[in-house]
């Protein structure tokens, strides 16, 4: 039955793509069930000769929670497909996004503050901007964007707080302890300093905890340690 459905959909895509090229987006594949992922693999082996582009998006920080997605990605790699890892927006792109959201030219100081706080994450940029608007902290009396917004004024939007809480719930106790220590140090910290603060944690356990926190996207490693 499943194969019949997959074949029928493939035939429909072949017909539709002859009428006009198709661009399909499968979003949030980290939540996809096995039949959906099986369909993705089936289509990947058959749309090569069609005017069809299929883009699937997923959060790699949640691969551990969906083994079926991990298996599907391995199968797609064998087919010659390669994932494209998206990084955060650049400083300039954050400014363009703020301009689009506000329909105003954003002051460079505001762009810098939001870029620094969000590291270019588009979701965080938008939520932070909307939070500042709702709190009346980003526009002056004339309706222009303020150039003197400070980090202390920003706070954490409710939507962002909920996302972070869900991510933290997936962390183990050791990883949460490491994250607490890291936050207490500074925005940037060295491994040796963190190791000193976590001297009760075995090195292997510390490295595992760091990897787990990093995969959740809660902080990033840099070359200078």
Give a quick summary of the entry.
The chain has 225 residues and is mainly alpha-helical.
Q: Could you walk me through the main structural features you see in this protein, from its secondary elements to its overall organization?
A:
- By secondary structure, the protein is mainly alpha-helical.
- The chain has three domains: about 80 residues, no CATH class; about 70 residues; about 45 residues, no CATH class.
- Helices cover about 55% and strands about 5% of the residues.
- It has a two-stranded parallel sheet with strand order 1-2.
**Beta-strand percent range:** under 5%
Rg, nearest Å: 22 Å
Helix content: 55-70%
Largest sheet: 2 strands, parallel
Shape summary: flat
**N→C terminal distance:** 53 Å
Order of helices and strands: HEHEHHHHHHHHH
Low-confidence stretches: none
Strand order of the largest sheet: 1-2
Q: What structural class do helix, strand and pairing data support?
A: mainly alpha
Number of helices: 11
Write down how many β-strands occur, each being a DSSP E stretch of 2 or more residues: 2
Q: Number of domains in the coordinates? A: 3
Overall mean pLDDT: 80
């Amino acid at each position: 039955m499943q194969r019949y459905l997959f074949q029928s959909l493939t035939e429909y895509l072949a017909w539709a793509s002859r009428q006009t090229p198709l661009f399909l987006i499968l979003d949030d594949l980290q939540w996809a069930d096995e039949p959906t992922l099986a369909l993705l693999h089936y289509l990947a082996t058959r749309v090569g000769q069609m005017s069809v582009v299929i883009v699937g998006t997923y959060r790699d920080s949640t691969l551990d929670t969906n083994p079926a997605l991990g298996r599907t990605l391995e199968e797609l790699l064998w087919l010659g497909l390669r994932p494209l890892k998206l990084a955060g927006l650049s400083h300039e792109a954050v400014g363009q996004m703020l301009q689009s959201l506000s329909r105003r030219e954003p002051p460079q100081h505001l762009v810098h503050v939001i870029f620094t706080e969000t590291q270019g994450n588009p979701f965080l940029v938008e939520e932070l901007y909307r939070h500042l608007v709702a709190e009346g902290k980003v526009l002056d009396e004339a309706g222009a964007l303020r150039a003197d917004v400070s980090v202390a004024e920003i706070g954490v939007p409710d939507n962002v707080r909920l996302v972070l809480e869900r991510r933290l719930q997936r962390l183990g106790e050791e990883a949460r302890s490491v994250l607490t220590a890291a936050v207490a140090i500074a925005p940037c910290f060295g491994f040796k300093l963190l190791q000193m603060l976590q001297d009760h944690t075995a090195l292997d356990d510390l490295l595992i905890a760091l990897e787990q926190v990093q995969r959740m996207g809660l902080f990033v490693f840099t070359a200078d340690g």
